[in-house]
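Before the break, one more example. Copy the sequence into your notebook; we will annotate it together after we see the structure.
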Amino acid sequence: MNHSYFVKSGKTCCYLATALSMLSAIPLEATPPRVVPAVPSGASSVANYHFGAALALSNKYLVVGVPEDDTQASDAGAVYLHHPSTGVLIRRIVLTGGLAGDRFGQAVAICGDRLVIGAPGRNGRTGAAYVFNPDNGKQLASLVPIVSLTGVCEMGSAVAIDNNTVIVGAPAYPNGANYGIVLTFQLSDYLPRGSINAPSAAGGRFGEAVAAASGVAIISAPEDGSAEGGVFVYRLENHWLLEVIEASSPSVGMHFGKSVAISHSTVVIGAPSESGAGAGAIYMQNLLSANLPAGMVNSLVRVESPDGQSGFGRNVAASGNLALVGGAASGDAYMIDLHANSITATLESGATRNYEGPVALFGTVGALAEPSADLVAMDSGAVWLVSPLMGRLPWAEHAAAGDIVGSNPRLLISNFQRVGIKQNGNLGWIHSTKGTDSKNGSVMGAQVSSEVIGLTGQVANGGSAPFFGKPLQLFLNQSLTPSADGDGTELLLSTLSGPGIASGNDHILAKFRGGPAEIVLREGTNLPSSVGIAPVLSGFREIQQSSHTSDILGVGMSLKKGIADVTASKDSAIALLDKNGEIESFFWEGSNVVSGLGTVTLGQFSGRLALPGSSLVFSVPLLTVTSGDQALFKEEANRAIRILHRKGGIASLPNRNWSAFLGETVDLVGNVAFRAVSTDGLSRHEGLWFQRAASSTAQLFLQDARLLRYQPSGDLAVMVLAQSSGGGFTAANDVSLFVHSFSAVGSGLASNRVLTEGDKIGTTDGARIGAFQTLDADPVNGWYVILVSLTSCTADSNQALFIGRGAERPFLKLRKGQWVRDDAGGAAKVASISIPATLADTTGAGGKGASHIINSSGQVALVIGYSDGYHQLVRLEAER
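Here is what the structure looks like once it is written out:
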């Protein structure tokens, strides 16, 4: 019997080519997947038990529902827990006081140490659902709904778990009318959260299939209309309907939504009778393809039944970047690549097995039920465990450790120091090197795509010495529109080496436009004469790049004392320059500035500034008779300067005055978010404030929490990472990520908590967020990316990457421990996910003008490490 893993195409075995050729790959096509049966034993080894009527899979358990188990009474039901690798029985769970017809085990869902089991036949088919601890088999709760269910409701026909929420379908509600209702419960205390009524009064059996992830519930009504069916997406937090998903060409009796699953951001929908009694189909909808809840585009992808088989899509499961499809008339099962949106492999049935029943998928293990299998007794059933199953690489490689630097085969990339992404999807990075020309690792380089733009020892001025030393920071052109320079101007802050280089002149800011490097600014040299006098630049404090809307640099700098009237009280400044080095604005310590609040004298600059668009924002002490005076300044695109707020001024709250300005950032259109302290004379309150571009007042976003990170996230929105204290908070749950946003009209403020330490990430192993490691937000369309560590899981899977958009909860996109393969059939395990970049200042302000790791298309730059130490710099696509 042929157990080919791949679609029957006659491919030959090959290890990972090109990018993965250095890995210790697994040649999948050479070795058919391992197939292990989990068969009924003991009480379940009885004819007509149909072992495998429901399935769930985690890292610890294969959960098998057997609603026709007669041990307690006829069809009282039972659930069996088997080892997910060996298929060996671990324990059996029955309902205490189980009665005939309960059908306990008709639906099952597992998340870590919580197992939810449905019994839709309980109480005369009113139905019920229960929570158990799978580790000891003890019942923890009977879920009591918030609404009174009477008559035939079939509560427990479908169940799902997401973080702290249990979702239970009752598709026959009310009393056999088959409208359907879905009930939600808190997993922490098992109390009801609410209910979701069927959006249609027709007998659509709303809730016959459910799935959940990342704060959304996917609920099907396969009998909606004339059994065309429909699928509905709800936000679990408030039960709002976000979107209705319908087949692009509905047909009578297609049962769209007979099965549903979700992995990462992709919903998988089965329509097993698409042509009435004919061939079925699978549909896929990526929820990140548009901004929830404003409305999704109809980006449904359809995968038709192979060879016109009916039943294709009767059962679906999804995990990682794969979907598993069972129930086709042939008995075969199919793997679908959720990135390529196509069937990538066939799991063939044969004389001894038929993949006719439910399916489950976790990691590289698939479970496929055959409820009518006769291995033990007639129709006793069986479940087949198949591994390894994995999808293709879900990213595009841009560079890898071991790649040649430029055209020198004796100089190779060793590891990546900093990375960033451009609006056109090209990546830039700073790397260390190895090889015979690396001079014991002292050679470093900066590249954009394949172009080397700064390499230790390379001439830095297009003609002669000095030479580049260590690259420090790369600024990628972020323009949304085509540039006259082609791919745009890149900037590099670098040290120098060579004759005459000392600590006072060893840093430069250089630009690249596809040719030799040109120095824009250099320590130890005079600033352009457009300043009026020509002070000497003695150090860079902070550099920001105005991208998207203009071509300006903001540079916080130190000036050399004793030259051009520079003294200890006049040795700091902020300058705005174009990329040719010409100064457009210059704010000098000790100089006077005329603003709407009169003339003030500037004090010592910290160097901190924000300039992502056309507006410059900075705070600086003022030299006045009042000790510690300070102001927050904003220079508009027309170069008009104004004081937004000044110490002692009214802080837009009753009896509050400004006390200190601690950090600031600004979005592309001039809306300012700033960290400040206000006082009522008795106590100090630190908070985050937001001020619209055209407003003279600021509104409070967040108060009395420790701000760890804040930056613009699209228009009128700010992403905030904050640490709380007080009752109920511990070191394991005191940090949360919020998206605060104003309505486009009026002053309505919305705050949405999107992730918190301790949250479950929505996988069946129950992994939780441990700590936030890296985050960034795109200021144009509001895409954001989060890298976190994980707890409650194994060490080889304790990291995850999330991508979101707007104020909605992000979706899991990539996880450490995930296996991937390339088109040649080789495989590799993800051992680390890293984003080597510095994206915020010491105050926590980000999005101030430097490069991003996520762009306005949702593309992300990151470094993937594999278990053998091999590293790739890749571009991950949010919408694939």
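The CA atoms of residues 479 and 548 lie 4 Å apart. The chain is about 0% helix and 45% strand. Try to locate both features in your own notes.
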